[in-house]
Amino acid sequence: MRPKGKSRRMLSAGLSGVALAAVLGAAPAVPPQADSRHEAGRAPHWELKQTGTEARFRGLAAVSRATAWLAGSGGTVLRTTDGGRTWRDVSPPGEGELQFRDIEAFDARRAVVLAIGEGEASRVLRTEDGGTTWQESFRNTDPKAFYDCMTFFDSRHGLAMSDPVDGRFRILSTRDGGRSWTVLPTAGMPDARPGEAGFAASGQCLVSFGPGDVWLATGGGAATRVLHSADRGLHWTAAESTIPAGDPARGVFALAFRDRAHGLAVGGDYRAGEASPRAGAVTRDGGRTWRRSATPPPAYRSGVAWLPHSRRAALAVGPTGTDLTTDAGRTWRTVDTGSYDTVDCTPDFGCWAAGEKGRAARLEW
Predict the structure, then answer these.
(1) Which of 8, 24, 228, 301 could disulfide-link 318, Cβ–Cβ 3.0 to 4.6 Å?
(2) Which 8-state DSSP code applies to residue 74?
């Protein structure tokens, strides 16, 4: 979604060791060090990692506990391979005017980054050597298109989505790991509603699971919707979510699915000081229907991720804090008041978060 004259999301730092100890009971497995730390009275918590930059990172790709990529304002891309102790600036040269809002990484060497904006400001770049060199693989030439988010099913197949063009969301597809892209036909895409668009807040308005399922989150219109495709973006169905809309600043900002059926949605109103009631929703049928969280996050949230190996625990992040659910999104409680825009977790318990003023953190168990 295009910014409306002001910053669309503002986000502050840490995960205090308050309530996250509950995760240890919610997950079937934890890192070996977690049990001893828990016995010593130390719950899992965010540990800030110094990045050495003031860029705002809305793009985050967690590869493992050791390796993560960040993408943000000013054409900035950083990479760590030592758990955040050091960060290498691997920003594409000469691209300081770009606003990176999403990055997808396959390992420590291969990554694809999305720049957002109207017309040619929307671009995709790819690296195969850890960011030493970059190749531009897509530049949008349609002034009506504005790309928001990107997702990959595997190391070859991926999609990117644009706000509606001529009344329908536009989907870009790659079959070669982001080296080339093709605009998909819109015959299988439902008509967009007046004012409806996506939010380039955290790289999580387009998410996938497995070889073919993908979900697209919307806002800005009279009601929020989540669109679903089971065939990599060729045909879509739409369902209304319970998160309020009715304003260009409101809607679903992020999605997360732990399997084809169970998903979480978070969002609200990104404007500072504005209330965000019913900012969380859950689905148990792949997005065909959504239920409001009984106790939703207390404020706008822009990112959400399931915790590794857990069927019930997840984290949501936003400008005013981090929230934890241990009942698959039915209830949430705030466990930290620091500001993050996006969150991502890996199977080896590598949970990362990133946001404004160069903020990056890893969940320490």
Answers:
(1) 301
(2) G
**Among positive and negative, which fits the CA dihedral 183, 161, 247, 8?**
negative
Alpha helices in the chain (DSSP H): 22-26, 32-39
Length of the chain: 365
Q: Residue 263 carries which side chain, given as an amino acid letter?
A: G
* pLDDT (0 to 100) of residue 85: 98
Instruction: Report the b/e string of 125-153 with b at 16+ CB within 10 A.
Output: bbbbebbeebeebbebeeeebbbbbbbbb
- β strands within 155-205, DSSP E: 158-165, 168-174, 182-183
List the structure tokens of 349: 């318990």
What single string gives the DSSP state of each residue in 241-290? -SS--SSTTEEEEEEEESSSS-EEEEEEE-STT---TT-EEEESSTTSS-
Prediction pTM value: 0.91
Contact 101, 58 (CB under 8 A): yes
- The single residue listed with the structure tokens 């978060």 is 353
Q: Can you say whether residue 219 is alpha, beta or left, with left for phi > 0 and alpha for psi between -120 and 50 degrees?
A: beta
Please tell me the predicted confidence (pLDDT) of residue 19: 45
Residue of 251, 280, 276, 275 lying closest to 265 (CA atoms): 280
The residue ranges of the chain whose pLDDT is under 70 are: 1-43
Whether the CB-CB separation of 19 and 333 falls below 8 Å is answered with yes
Question: How far apart are the C-alpha atoms of 212 and 219, rounded to whole Å?
Answer: 24
